[in-house]
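queue> pop job 88
queue> type: inverse folding (structure -> sequence)
queue> payload:
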């Protein structure tokens, strides 16, 4: 029984010492880990600030891309209209040229030459008369 009492007495003496050692281990761990944890938190905050700035830039870029897409859509529509207008103008020009060619084909060049000759015959005596007054 004495032995049991010695063990109990020893355990009773060792228990406060073990608590003190555990408390010291916890305090030392806190002293060593706290500065590292604070630095890690500062780095994490800086990284989050950079990520937030990057996301803001991505938002601005997305708005710019949307505006560019809208501009491109408008440009395509304008180009399509311009091609349609050019096609219509070409068709109108072709019709006008065809009409002019058809009218030129209707001209009787032999009669035109005869009329020009007759006109020259009439104008020639008038020209001689005009030269006399000079």
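queue> result:
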């Amino acid at each position: 029984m004495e032995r049991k009492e010695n063990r109990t007495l020893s355990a009773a003496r060792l228990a406060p010492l073990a608590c003190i050692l555990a408390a010291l281990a916890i305090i030392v761990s806190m002293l060593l880990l706290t500065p590292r944890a604070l630095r890690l938190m500062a780095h994490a905050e800086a990284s989050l600030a950079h990520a937030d700035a990057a996301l803001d830039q991505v938002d601005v870029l997305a708005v710019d891309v949307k505006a560019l897409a809208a501009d491109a859509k408008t440009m395509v529509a304008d180009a399509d209209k311009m091609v349609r207008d050019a096609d219509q103008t070409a068709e109108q020009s072709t019709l006008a040229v065809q009409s002019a060619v058809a009218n030129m084909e209707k001209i009787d060049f032999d009669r035109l030459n005869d009329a020009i000759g007759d006109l020259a015959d009439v104008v020639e005596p008038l020209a001689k008369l005009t030269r006399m007054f000079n």
